[in-house]
Amino acid sequence: MDFKEWLYKVADLSLADYGRKELDTAEKEMPGLMALRQKYAWQKPLAWARITGSLHMTIQTAVLIETLVDLWADVRWASCNIFSTQDHAAAAIAVTWVPVFAWKWETLEEYWWCTLEALSFPGWLGPNLIVDDGWDATLFVHKWFGAENNASILDKTPENEEEGIILNLLKKVLKDTPNRWHTVMKDLKWISEETTTGVHRLYEMMKAWELLVPAINVNDSVTKSKFDNLYGCRESLADWIKRATDVMIAWKVVVVCGYGDVGKWCAMSMRWYGARVIITEVDPICALQAAMEWYKVTTMEEALKEWNIYVTTTWNLDIITVEDIANMKDEAIVCNIGHFDNEIQVDKLNKYPWVKKINIKPQVDKYIFPDGHCIYLLAEWRLVNLGCATGHPSFVMSNSFTNQTLAQIDLWQKDYEVWVYRLPKYLDEEVARLHLEQIGVKLTKLTQKQADYLWIDVNGPYKPEHYRY
Ligand code: NAD
Ligand code: 3DD
After folding, report:
1. 439: CA distance to ligand 2 center in Å?
2. What is the pTM of this model?
3. What is the distance between the alpha carbons of residues 216 and 286, in angstroms, rounded to a whole number?
4. Ligand 2 atom showing the smallest separation from residue 225 Cα
């Protein structure tokens, strides 16, 4: 480990050169971010903005970080997943003196320590903006605020190991630096949330009047969720299967739990590899969509009767129970590409009587049941495409992160009441425009007559308001 207080804690600084070479390659595949650097850097739109990132520390995220820095933001970064950091990406950022606290295979204690470091700017300052992916940083600062109001909330019995770690860390923080978050909280202007799970949590907080600052739902920008969640998963799902298991996908039955944005294109990916795909769904519309695509839509109980690879994509909990796993066919493969907390009952699996766990290689564990059958669990049920592989390719992440960057610029310059917002359509369209040239698209231009017919003002900007829910 290489550690310099306040500045970085990464696995190995000597990987920086390798990371830089991959960063240079990734930039060629991230035209949206590079265009924003060219367009905005001279304006320094994020000057004086302190941005905390809690988002997978990958090569693609490193390009996002350097874009924010080019726009003059003061950035501190941690990953949002204990397995997703690419150590050469973290090293490449660390040597540029941008504070980063992330390494692959963090323990949960280390993970939350990294999150606190990313929130802790020198001079006992906190962030003005938080770039969150999956709600962990948002959860932490809201629990922190609540604990400073009433420390007894930290004495609750934790629901799981991770909550216990968070409560203990907050107890230490309250003891070492009483009332610190209330002091820095006044500087926090916005939270931006990258993914579906985090967005749903934000709306829950908003409806419960628990949200402390305005938040922006980046996930539901069309150029994020209809690209990243779709094309990204379509490519990165197959990638992890091959890297983790080398199994032949053709002729196998793959059960995709959930047929939403992510599930739809995971199913397509597996079909392209020659698998027979079964869908489980709770939403009648998504189930109908799956059936229209000739997928068998059935229950988990039915799906268990066939030899399977299981992929959960739902951001719901208990999608695959320990009983399901115990009833699976021999050599089944189980993984999650959806939310990384509780889609699969791994805690119960690890306590299941007489089950033997053998680690095959990092992020590939074999569980042998008393009757002799076994299953393989990938990435310890956390996001498998980032745990067993390198996540989505650069071009699709350029779409997501161009949204993020435009959001930071927009948010830093405006003040809104506490609510959850989305980026306006004109920015969504701007993200798409910034990617067209690279792929050789020539857009047809509306004539004035057509624009009038469609009631579109081809020259005037849309009213730059955020859409409110
Ligand atoms: P979504 O809401 O579009 O789809 C989720 C689907 O799961 C819905 O259709 C819902 O009906 C279904 N579902 C819910 N409970 C179910 C159950 N018990 N059984 C079967 N189906 C059930 O969400 P999304 O945008 O597809 O995202 C799904 C998850 O993937 C989220 O957690 C999101 O954060 C995550 N995500 C991961 C990546 C990645 O790179 N790993 C990328 C994007 C999104
Ligand atoms: N995510 C997938 N691949 C990623 C990559 N290469 N870098 C950073 C993050 C990456 C996760 C995103 O899709 C996130 O936006 C989500 O989970 O929705």
Report:
1. 21
2. 0.92
3. 26
4. 18
